[in-house]
């Protein structure tokens, strides 16, 4: 259970990084379509049809996919996000 909470905390940071990257002028061209696919995947109607499978999907797979996308972002964007969060005192 603790690992699940760690995964969600990491997903929250990755979500902030993804939001920062979407607003960054040097974002990669592939980021916008991938972010749209992630949103569609999160709101997938299969989550409502098969509730147990949808819960596992949202609790485990979605944060892992989000973390994978965050790892693929250029170092310039990741470094800029780290500087911004350190400046805010998070």
Sum up the overall morphology in one term. Answer: globular
N-end to C-end Cα span: 24 Å
Low-confidence stretches: none
What percentage of amino acids are in beta strands?
A: under 5%
Range of helix content: over 70%
- Which structural class do the helices and strands define? mainly alpha
Q: Measured on Cα atoms, how large is the radius of gyration?
A: 14 Å
Concise account of the structure shown:
The chain has helices spanning 2-23, 31-42, 46-49, 51-72, 75-88. With 90 residues, it is an all-alpha fold. The chain has one domain.
What does the model show?
This protein has 90 residues and is an all-alpha fold. The chain has one domain. The chain is built from 5 helices and no strands. The radius of gyration is 14 Å and the shape is globular.
